Amino acid sequence: MDIILGIRVQDATIIATSKAATRGISILKDTDDKTRELNAHNLIAYTGEAGDTVQFAEYVQANIQLYSMRENDIELSPLATASFVRNQLATSIRSRKPYQVNCLIAGYDTKKDQPTLNWIDYLGTQVELPYGAHGYAGFYTTSLLDKHYRKDMVVDDGLKLLKLCLKELETRMPIDFKGVYVKVVDKDGIRSVELD
Amino acid sequence: MSRRYDSRTTIFSPEGRLYQVEYAQEAISMAGTAIGILSSEGVVLACEKKVTSKLLDNDGSAEKLYIINDNMICAVAGMTADASILVNNARINAQSYLKTYNEQIPCEILIKRVCDVKQGYTQHGGLRPFGVSFLYAGYDDRYQFQLFTSNPSGNYSGWKATSIGANNSAAQTLLKKDYKDDLTLKEACELAIKVLSKTMDASNINSEKLEFATLSLSKVEEGKVIHKIWNDTDVNALIQDSGVLNDKSTEDD
Amino acid sequence: MSDPFSINGGSAVAMVGKDCIAIASDLRLGNQSLGVSNNFEKIFGFGDKCFLGLTGLATDVLTLKETFRFKTNLYKLREERSIEPETLANLVSSTLYERRFGPYFVSPIVAGLGHKDNKPFICGFDSIGCIDFAKDFIVSGTASDQLYGMCESLYEPDLEPEQLFETISQALLNAVDRDALSGWGAVVYIVTKDKVVKRVLKTRQD
């Protein structure tokens, strides 16, 4: 029931993740951040099996940071980062105990000056999308996004659209997901945004 | 006495040297010369083909120049049989990087990986080091065109112009004298011919004694690298253009 | 429901014409009934006149695309020429059979022209690499039943490139319209002796 949502606009990619950490019928925490910074311009947001998620996200985070340490602080591009993550999941799905982690990778390609949003599921299915979500959030929000998304939107338009999606989720989702953390990835890096 | 320290690759001599590695480098310094020159428009690699018999039935493919991937080529000095093992290793490395990251491998990462293999044979015992030096010409979006050399010890370094193999010090002196930072690719090619014509033993140079390759950017497709291993006609035309034949004939007179 | 071949959906088809071939696929990628992407191509080129279509589980489509890029790139460097369609077919077959007891969930198709003689070649495979040679057409994917029907009725031998394009496009478009898991746009490659034409088709977006 976790929510992760991503919208790519003209100069940035926006990510929203629900704050609730649930187990069974209980909400254990209402300040759970389901994202990790992979490097200065790549953010991973994840949902899935408790335990697997953080373990996996921090594993790829470590590997991507190791790459930069070996290569004189050169960052992997969003495409390379997403490809690496996909590769890990595609290998994992055929192992004895696969990671059950779905993720979105928000990135900003500083060479091409392009924001990207990569949708990757636990099977290793990867696609670059203008907007995307995992889990039930997808059913409620994709039709809204289909209708209102425009190619020439900027961050503020994106945040407005995001609010529209969140309103829908708050009405339709059967349990309280305790609001969302919103992060924006653009040419200056990753930053948190407060929705008013 | 010396036999005590040079029969095994991994044992230091009392002077702190690894004789087998030095011998491998010695073997290379007798192999045909290869030179590489970097220009803003691309990189040129040129090598000298040793002993060409009329009876040798070669299939037309280059002996000492190899394509590693879409963005890199290399020239070899030393034992060609050893080289082909390392070239194959480099090609596989380049493809597996492409498979995991969906991007071409940056030049230096690939060179580092091949050099790690070479270094391994200077430390783990039982086998001899690889008897090859490489000249790598490459392009990536981090540092654009690049030229590197590597040797049997597993060291590698980047250059604007350099040479490996026989007479490499003479070639380097000539390169140091004539290299300019604003060289065009054509000028770099001609410089390569000029230097080779002076360092090679042969009196007249032609396509039978030379192998030539260039790396440049496509004018049509942005970011696409063109690697070309030259055919005999093109090499002869270049030799003609460079004017080394004229210099020779006037000297002879 | 949890059949790996129909989680993501997607279809592909190849046809032989007169001295030419055509290969086409839809563009949908879904997660069960939910459409995720309308830009997921399932046709990949290896060499100038040689194409591979991959339908089935999307993660395996991507993995195999990358694997065959790896293998054909090395092939090209070693042989100093591009791979022939027949050779690619055997490479696909052996690569799939390596995973005989834990297969990739894909149904590949190969189509191309011989590099020297320009002889048309098409074939299909099951998920463990058994080759299905055909003279006329090959279908694969979640709309394969519908594609069989369309191809049986529209196909005729020795079509010229333009007619072949029309035939394969109509076959694919009308087949995927009867399949909930395929559609969302299509892409067609027409391969003749001196050029490859790629056309992206607009289709119904539902």
UniProtKB/TrEMBL annotation, chain A:
<dbReference type="GO" id="GO:0005789">
    <property type="term" value="C:endoplasmic reticulum membrane"/>
</dbReference>
<dbReference type="GO" id="GO:0019774">
    <property type="term" value="C:proteasome core complex, beta-subunit complex"/>
</dbReference>
<dbReference type="InterPro" id="IPR023333">
    <property type="entry name" value="Proteasome_suB-type"/>
</dbReference>
<dbReference type="InterPro" id="IPR016050">
    <property type="entry name" value="Proteasome_bsu_CS"/>
</dbReference>
<keyword id="KW-0539">Nucleus</keyword>
<dbReference type="InterPro" id="IPR001353">
    <property type="entry name" value="Proteasome_sua/b"/>
</dbReference>
<dbReference type="InterPro" id="IPR029055">
    <property type="entry name" value="Ntn_hydrolases_N"/>
</dbReference>
<dbReference type="Pfam" id="PF00227">
    <property type="entry name" value="Proteasome"/>
</dbReference>
<dbReference type="GO" id="GO:0010499">
    <property type="term" value="P:proteasomal ubiquitin-independent protein catabolic process"/>
</dbReference>
<dbReference type="InterPro" id="IPR035206">
    <property type="entry name" value="Proteasome_beta2"/>
</dbReference>
<protein>
    <recommendedName>
        <fullName>Proteasome subunit beta</fullName>
    </recommendedName>
</protein>
<keyword id="KW-0647">Proteasome</keyword>
<dbReference type="GO" id="GO:0005634">
    <property type="term" value="C:nucleus"/>
</dbReference>
<keyword id="KW-0963">Cytoplasm</keyword>
<comment type="subunit">
    <text>The 26S proteasome consists of a 20S proteasome core and two 19S regulatory subunits. The 20S proteasome core is composed of 28 subunits that are arranged in four stacked rings, resulting in a barrel-shaped structure. The two end rings are each formed by seven alpha subunits, and the two central rings are each formed by seven beta subunits. The catalytic chamber with the active sites is on the inside of the barrel.</text>
</comment>
From TrEMBL, chain B:
<dbReference type="InterPro" id="IPR001353">
    <property type="entry name" value="Proteasome_sua/b"/>
</dbReference>
<dbReference type="Pfam" id="PF00227">
    <property type="entry name" value="Proteasome"/>
</dbReference>
<keyword id="KW-0963">Cytoplasm</keyword>
<dbReference type="GO" id="GO:0080129">
    <property type="term" value="P:proteasome core complex assembly"/>
</dbReference>
<keyword id="KW-0647">Proteasome</keyword>
<dbReference type="GO" id="GO:0034515">
    <property type="term" value="C:proteasome storage granule"/>
</dbReference>
<comment type="function">
    <text>The proteasome degrades poly-ubiquitinated proteins in the cytoplasm and in the nucleus. It is essential for the regulated turnover of proteins and for the removal of misfolded proteins. The proteasome is a multicatalytic proteinase complex that is characterized by its ability to cleave peptides with Arg, Phe, Tyr, Leu, and Glu adjacent to the leaving group at neutral or slightly basic pH. It has an ATP-dependent proteolytic activity.</text>
</comment>
<dbReference type="InterPro" id="IPR029055">
    <property type="entry name" value="Ntn_hydrolases_N"/>
</dbReference>
<dbReference type="GO" id="GO:0005634">
    <property type="term" value="C:nucleus"/>
</dbReference>
<dbReference type="GO" id="GO:0010499">
    <property type="term" value="P:proteasomal ubiquitin-independent protein catabolic process"/>
</dbReference>
<keyword id="KW-0539">Nucleus</keyword>
<protein>
    <recommendedName>
        <fullName>Proteasome subunit alpha type</fullName>
    </recommendedName>
</protein>
<dbReference type="GO" id="GO:0043161">
    <property type="term" value="P:proteasome-mediated ubiquitin-dependent protein catabolic process"/>
</dbReference>
<dbReference type="InterPro" id="IPR000426">
    <property type="entry name" value="Proteasome_asu_N"/>
</dbReference>
<comment type="similarity">
    <text>Belongs to the peptidase T1A family.</text>
</comment>
TrEMBL record, chain C:
<keyword id="KW-0963">Cytoplasm</keyword>
<comment type="subunit">
    <text>The 26S proteasome consists of a 20S proteasome core and two 19S regulatory subunits. The 20S proteasome core is composed of 28 subunits that are arranged in four stacked rings, resulting in a barrel-shaped structure. The two end rings are each formed by seven alpha subunits, and the two central rings are each formed by seven beta subunits. The catalytic chamber with the active sites is on the inside of the barrel.</text>
</comment>
<dbReference type="GO" id="GO:0019774">
    <property type="term" value="C:proteasome core complex, beta-subunit complex"/>
</dbReference>
<dbReference type="Pfam" id="PF00227">
    <property type="entry name" value="Proteasome"/>
</dbReference>
<dbReference type="GO" id="GO:0043161">
    <property type="term" value="P:proteasome-mediated ubiquitin-dependent protein catabolic process"/>
</dbReference>
<dbReference type="GO" id="GO:0010499">
    <property type="term" value="P:proteasomal ubiquitin-independent protein catabolic process"/>
</dbReference>
<dbReference type="GO" id="GO:0005737">
    <property type="term" value="C:cytoplasm"/>
</dbReference>
<comment type="subunit">
    <text>Component of the proteasome complex.</text>
</comment>
<dbReference type="InterPro" id="IPR001353">
    <property type="entry name" value="Proteasome_sua/b"/>
</dbReference>
<dbReference type="GO" id="GO:0005634">
    <property type="term" value="C:nucleus"/>
</dbReference>
<dbReference type="InterPro" id="IPR023333">
    <property type="entry name" value="Proteasome_suB-type"/>
</dbReference>
<dbReference type="InterPro" id="IPR033811">
    <property type="entry name" value="Proteasome_beta_3"/>
</dbReference>
<comment type="function">
    <text>Component of the proteasome, a multicatalytic proteinase complex which is characterized by its ability to cleave peptides with Arg, Phe, Tyr, Leu, and Glu adjacent to the leaving group at neutral or slightly basic pH. The proteasome has an ATP-dependent proteolytic activity.</text>
</comment>
<protein>
    <recommendedName>
        <fullName>Proteasome subunit beta</fullName>
    </recommendedName>
</protein>
<comment type="similarity">
    <text>Belongs to the peptidase T1B family.</text>
</comment>
